[in-house]
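[job 4417] fold queue: 2 targets
>>> target A
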Amino acid sequence: MSDLPSTMKAMVLTGHGDVDMYHWHEDWPTPEPGPDDVVIKVGACGLNNTDVNTRSGWYSKAVDEATTGGAYDEVDDEDPTWGGRPITFPRIQGADPVGRVIAVGTNADKKIIGKRVLIAGWIRDRNEGMLERANVTEADTVLIPGASGGVGGALIQLAKRRGARVIALASEAKHKDVAELNPDLLLPRAPEDLRTALGDEKITVVADVVGGDGWPALIEVLERGGRYTCSGAIAGPIVNFDLRTFYLRDLTFTGSTSIPQKVFHNIVQYIEDGSIKPMLAATYPLAELREAQTAFIEKRHTGNIVVVP
């Protein structure tokens, strides 16, 4: 038995829909650890598109719109999540938490109680990982759409750390913030003619989380033998794909959801040694998750938004 309190505060998602599907509880049952489990008291949790898309039902194949965070009439509770299985409710979200271990199961090491932890909550296919799968090196020039977001900012820094030349696309209102990450070239979010805007740049890798109507232009600027890697589609999942460009230029496409375990450990090390830095846009109390997620969806921020107890 543990000394855990019987209840906890929680923002509970009750079904697919808009942010009004979140309900605040101050007496939600505290989970008891199984034999191999630990219980972590969350100190902070980053917001991400995965939680938004799961709540709204965007991963359903019935939806072909851009990520908006709203409700989709075509979706019901039996639609699969991005993992391919039906989702169940009620559920407590939060894929990117940090905190302290406060209880452990009978088979777990009791010495870790009280330890501060960062959580990598993935069931992994160890062959995935965005820059890892695209095999980015110092010989590459990497084009990063959506560079002002949390993932985009990380991609800039991690690609630079690999020695690559980095070209970032972001709305001009956010250029000052994105420039602090030192991309080699910073362009508007959607240039009227991307090839002209790039000038003599030779793009060997596109690292994309955007998709949408501008997607064909990203593929057209890839050099022969180039690589496209994708971990999101916030501007829309359905794109116009010319197979001739794909096969005549010998392009390689990779998808990325989970990451190899070493990547998580490496990123923590890079933050600790100052190689890369997190970009915190705003902090909200958990009870205001609806407001925090609304701000996240509006995309007026640079970096990421975090909720705290």
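>>> target B
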Amino acid sequence: MKTIALILFLLTYVALLSLPKYRAYLAFVSAVLFVSFGILPLDKILTAIDFNVLLMIGGTMGIVSLFIDSKMPSLLADWILDRTPDVKWAIISLSLFAGIISAFVDNVATVLMVAPVAMTIAKKLKINPVPSIIAIAVSSNLQGAATLVGDTTSILLGGYANMDFLDFFFFQGKVGIFWVVQMGAVVSTFVLLWIFRKDNQRIHLDEKTVVTDYFPSILLVGMIVLLILASFVPNKLAITNGLITVSLMSVGLLRDLIKHQKFGKIVGTLMEIDFETLLLLASLFVVIGGITEVGLVDDIATLFLKFAGDNLFIIYSLIVWASVLLSAFIDNIPYIATMLPVVSGIASTLGIDPTLLYLGLLSGATLGGNLTPIGASANITAIGILRKEGYTVTTKDFMSIGVPFTLAAVMTGYILIWLIWV
């Protein structure tokens, strides 16, 4: 049974890498096979799937869709640009703004919000928009690891390690990943300042975005506040965070129905939810549950320890930098989903708290996507926006910004996480 599980698991990953457009359906087929072959018993399917994670992702996506439609992000971007002296500081400010938004909103959604502003500035000043939009994409990826709702990978870690919203700020009496990410952002900002040091053209905004509906902004802030308050509730339901996000999304949809008297608006918002990602995750939960059931996860952890020995620093370093390299070429969602139980097994074998390894895994896998144009969905989205406007982005163009930015941010996080959590 273990051999069959291993073959299926390897074939699944080869298929996910080879056919990324169909990864959700391939993962679903794999999950069905895992159950059909009896690798994961029928009575353990529901326990293998983390419904809190799925509900959180779906609910957050719905709220973000309403938030984008309200044009509030564009207004905030206009406000920032109106206070910047030249192109260099406009790019830096937009990148930092994208990072702040991305800590609470999906990275792809953040790029879709902020990149058009950078494109408008470039058209007005008749400059190349490619570097500025790449900077926005990599900055949004960086901050995805900062909070529980910042990225799918963070939600996965939160669900697996039973971490709440506040745990990303302070955990077990120590500084959390949020502050580590902010230090990485500070260091990488100096990299951007150097890259854009010659862009000194002046900026002037003739028109500002007008926002007439502030309710979606209230929903987004309300989600954050309620997730924080839920952190203090003892013995709460395992799906509490998911129920909060879905309930607030439902409130927003109901209000839209009452306000517009049309179902089309609700359908449009629901269509913004990435159901393929939800299917992918649900299927991967089943696959990982299967390889855990037959002991493959423990075997992977054992092989890792044989290679690295029992030296914690070597193990930590391998997890961080292997995650950086792998996430530069493969999607970090299935990677994180697979590695979380492996990292937990390594920590259990060593008899240590797994937090150090969890945070190393999250930072490496999240930031590694910034190395290449295909390493993260936000990067692909940014390049797609540029392509529609007639701009070609070469791998060299992207990596000239992505590589120094990533190395600065990862090295900062790598050092700080070790110093804080050892």
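[job 4417] complete. Note on B: The chain has 20 helices and two strands.
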